[in-house]
Amino acid sequence: MSFDVASLRAQFPILSERPGGRPIHYLDNAATAQTPQSVIDTVSRHEATSRGNIFRGIHRLAEMATEAYQNARGDVARYLGVADPDEIVFTGGTTAGINLLAHAYGDTLNHGDEILLSDLEHHSNIVPWQMLRERSGIVLRWLPVTDEGRLDLDALARQIGPRTRLIALSHVSNVTGAETDVGRVVEAARPVGARVMLDGAQRAPHGPLDLPALGVDFYVFSGHKVYGPNGIGALWGRREWLEALPPFLGGGHMIHRVARERSSYADIPHRFEAGTMPIAQAVGMAAALRWSMALDWKEATAHTQRLTERLLHGIASIDGTRIVGPLGLQGRIGVVSFDMPGLHPHDICQILDGHGVALRGGHHCCQILMDRFDLAGTTRASIAPYNDDADIDACIDGLKDAVRRLR
Amino acid sequence: MNDDLYHERLVALARAADNAGVVSPPALSGEADNPLCGDRVRMTLRVKDGRIAALAHKTRGCLLCEAAAAAIGRRAPGSGIEDVHSIAARLRDWLKNGTDLPAGTWPELADFAPVRAVKSRHDCVLLPFDALIQALKEVDPR
What we know:
Chain A is built from 14 helices and 15 strands. Chain A is α/β, with parallel strands linked by helices and about 400 residues long. Chain A has a 7-stranded mixed sheet with strand order 2-8-7-6-5-3-4, sandwiched between helices. Chain A has a 4-stranded antiparallel sheet with strand order 11-12-15-14, covered by helices on one side. With about 140 residues, chain B is α+β, with helices and mostly antiparallel strands. In chain B, a hairpin with a 2-residue loop joins strand 2 and strand 3. The longest helix of chain B is centred in the middle third of the chain and has 17 residues, at about 80-95. Chain B starts with a helix and ends in a 6-residue tail after the last helix.
């Protein structure tokens, strides 16, 4: 049976909106994915029936909110394939998760210890480590990127040494769509005792994960990219590692006991969840992950791969256009960046907006990668399972119109 | 909205790229970056007796940014520093606050009228002017 994209689209109310009198062809999913009605209903129902502060309230609403929040933690654990929900720390998103690690894990590092990043990282997986370098004198090393927009894993042996403490890489590039061969990274990390953190912002939206099988130590992702609300995300860490880390933010809830002289801290995950957390957002993100877990990802992936191929062929048919990333479907997702010489990405996006097509243009918070390809920016189309042939065709038609009008 | 934005005169202005390049030293220079998109404009110029004697721009930007840089390249040489400051301020007000563009400003600026409705693109037009003002700070640090 073929993938029923029409019934999937019907679950996303925004896709039937007509802003400016045109249908929406939403291909900016790598920035923010749309959210299904079930998630909107869950958040609305929670706020209407179960709103209260969590953990310390001795009343029915507080208990209901606490239960919903803790159940959400369990749903995140299931989505990531991990058995222990206490290994899930709710965060404000991927950036907040990496900053948490840069402080907490960073506090365990010494002057001269090394962290390996890559040239294709999002700024959120670069700047927090640069700030740590300024605070504590750690050394950053860099994996290069191949002409195809993939991590050059052949360089791992050169970049990893006895002082390497952490390897922090994108699971999937938000520019090139290339998926990292995590097995090779983990294999290279283990002999020197380095930990591996994956920025899963772009991979997490494309189906449930099995983190124990991946063999990594930390994983971060964002709720708004997995069809859930803004302002929420999660950090997963192996229990033994999270337990060994000091807290990052101080405040209510993250303590065991507070006294004038010193304070002691709560067990994981609460140690890392200071203050009142975004409760409804956590509940909403869990609803989004349950929605995702109910999807047939084998069919959904076949569908998005077919659309990706259609998009790649369409872009390649436009004279002079260059794909920044893998040209084929192997080891990539439907995040497709391209350069059209003489046309600026923002002008392209503006023209495409006139066709009802939502794209993203610019450096995508990856200026080091842009330098690698000698570009100021690219135009990016990114695909979700609810996209269809009409979205891709509108995009290609719009790109041809942009060439006609701007070149 | 988009149909209006990239009209023929504006595209032609951007492609004309008047005075693209670099003024040979000795020159004043100013640079402006848009961190949202990575666009960058560098203005180099010479000033004599309170007027811009020579000016050139290196522009890595979108069509709106290129067109604004070309307008500067076409009209700023020969203009007084005071006039340039005034035009930049009036352009900013016209784009962002809906004021009128007074008679006597550079005629090319009226071609940016459709941009007023697209807030996210105002800074594309203003970036070359920011670089120009930056360059002039060396002689007029207002």
